[in-house]
Each structure stands twice: as C-alpha cells, then as structure tokens.
Amino acid sequence: MDSFLKSGKLGDTASSKSSTSGISKKKDKKLQWVEKYRPRTVEDVVEQKEVVALLQECILGADLPNLLFYGPPGTGKTSTILAAARQLFGDIYKDRILELNASDDRGIQVIREKIKTYAQLSVASSRADGKACPALKIVILDEADAMTDAAQTALRRTMEKEAKTTRFCLLCNYVSRIIEPLTSRCTKFRFKPLNQSFVLERLQLICTKEDVLVDDDVLNILVKESGGDLRRAITALQSCAHLKGKGNKIALENVYDVLTVVPSDWITNFFNLCKNESDINEIIRFINDLEQQAYPCHKIFEQLNDLLIEAEISEPLKAEIGEYLAESSFRSSCSRSDFTHLLDFAVHVQEILTVPVEHRKAKAEKIARSTMINGIA
Length: 377
Ligand SMILES: Nc1ncnc2c1ncn2[C@@H]1O[C@H](COP(=O)(O)OP(=O)(O)OP(=O)(O)O)[C@@H](O)[C@H]1O
Ligand SMILES: [Mg+2]
What we know:
By secondary structure, the chain is of the alpha/beta class. Helices cover 59% and strands 7% of the residues.
C-alpha cells in the first residue's frame, strides 16, 4: 500500500516495465480503471489488514490454508486472492489457478469432474524464474453463495481429498449461505466496506495519474455515495471523467447523474412539505414534478432516511416515521407505482407529526375492527 501511494504504480516491477512499451500504453488507455488500478501485490490491498498479514506469511513460506472471503462488493476479495497467487507463483500464476464463478455451471457434476480433475494435476515446486513456490494449485470459487447446497456438500469431500495438492478460496457476499461444514474447513475473513479516507486517497491518486480535474468536495460526495465500495467509486469517477472530457472539471451534477443521486434540494423540499401542514394539492404537484425527473423511488427513500436521522424531531416520532419509511421503501420495491408510494408516505408523515398518537391509535383500531367485520360479513 505504502509503495503504491509513493510511486503511484501498482504492483511489481514487471508490470511497470511492461507499461513503458507503446503497445502496453495503448492497452492501458483502453483498460477500465478498476482493472488498471487493481492491486497486483497483497501490500497494495487497502485496509483488509488481517488477511493481508496472513497472505504475507504464506508468501514467505507458511502453509496456505483453505480460505473463505466474505463481505460487500468492491472491497477487494477477488483482487486479494489474485494478487497473492501472482506473488506466490510469479509468471505462471494463471496455470496455478482455476477460477469459477456463478455464470459457470457449478453443480455437483462440475464439482465432481472439473474441479476434481484439476485438483488431481500435479505441479512443480518451482516457478518459471527458478524460485521456489508451493507445489499447489488454487481453486477460486467466486460467488460461492450462489452454489446449491448439494454442490457445496460435494465440495466438502473434494476439499479434504485433494488437500495435499490444492487449496480452495471461496468468495462470497453472504457467508450465511455457505454450509457450516464448508466454513469450518476454511480460514474466514470478513472484508469490511472501505473507510472513506482510504477510498478518497485512492481516488485522488487515480485523478493525479489520469489528469482528472475535480474539487475535493465533489470527490468527497462521490466517496460518500459509494458506501465503501471502491469498485463503484472508481467506475463512477471514470464515467464522470469520460462525460466531461479531458481538461474539463467534474461538477457535482455529474456525480449525481452517474450515481443516480437525487439532488439534496429535492429531498429537503419533499421532507419539508411532509413536515409542514402543506396543502395536499401542493404535495401532489411536487411529487408529479419529482416523478418527471425519473429518480428511482428506492433512492428517494434511502436519502430521506439519511435526512430523517439528522432531522430535529423527537425520537419517538422519528422512530415512527423511520418504521413507515422502511415499509414504504419495501412496498415500492415490489410495485411500480412510485407516485402512490410517495404520496402515501407524505400523507402518513403529516399525520404522524400533526395528529396526537392516541387519536391515531383509536383510528387504527377502528379501521382494523371494520376490516374484520367486513371480512366476516
Ligand atoms: N481493498 C482494496 N484495495 C485496493 N483496491 C481495491 C480494494 N477493494 C476494491 N478495490 C478496487 O475495486 C475493484 C474491485 O475489487 P474486487 O473485484 O476485488 O472486489 P470484490 O470484493 O471481489 O467484489 P465482489 O463481491 O463484487 O466480487 C478492484 O479492481 C480494485 O480496483
Ligand atoms: Mg469479486
């Protein structure tokens, strides 16, 4: 990481050497920034200290265990295992890994045949450059949480049988979807969402390398909206840079457009309309205008939630609005009528804030009773 921040170059000398040729420069230009700035050594991996420490030991000669990396997207799971493989095996690292993801068929048959056949291949204990390396291969199962329980069960035996020659690295977002017998055979690492300061540091560096013009406060919004997902942050930065073209400064609106963030004015105005006893026609007009902007409804609710947390409302009322916000957000994800969900939310918030709680309870009970009577009738 330190070396990366000092030199601004990712990875080993081999990659920096190759980037001096004209051909690689051309290739570099076409490369997506997420790939171009993917860590090439485990030291380049930002923040995930525990796993980096373990892999550094393995690179120095300690035995490599079966691994399970889990956590949210864009936090470095795939990058970390690829960087470790590159360091362990040098130029031949691609021969020493078998990468399978959810788009490959990974039913029991594949586990039994493809993985088993690969696992049984024997490999040398030296690299192409003559240096010693572990006589191992690594099977990387990306999106392991998408594998069926039957396939995971089949993997259990394979893992044990091929322990002498093969290590498995399971990557997933949801560890709860991995069966217990598999998790207990692996050393587990949770990849945390990246700290905003690290994401900012990395984006600033990419901006310097790629001659991107952007102010720090705009970059900060981009970082915040990426929610600790570095892939999302880098991809958004590249999209903004392309949108503006070379030599033009990225503006806040560009970040909002690329990440489909609703400008904060819309959210604040909407919340104020709900809070103040506004006329229903005014609310309807506002929601119609908001709909015209085609912002996704779930995003509006997500941003309303951020605003609610900071709002100057008593805690019990805040909790009540929060609960209704969660329900509205869920309902909106199940249907397409954004207008109805936003109007329903606005009216409900008005009621929470203006009608005393005992009146609302009495009203709710009356509705429940009449629904029951109608149901029986
Ligand atoms: N910890 C990190 N250190 C350095 N770069 C990172 C890190 N995490 C993510 N990145 C950047 O984001 C890109 C995507 O990372 P990666 O593919 O490793 O994420 P992932 O955790 O495997 O995500 P997913 O769960 O979606 O597969 C990388 O190419 C790299 O540029
Ligand atoms: Mg991945």
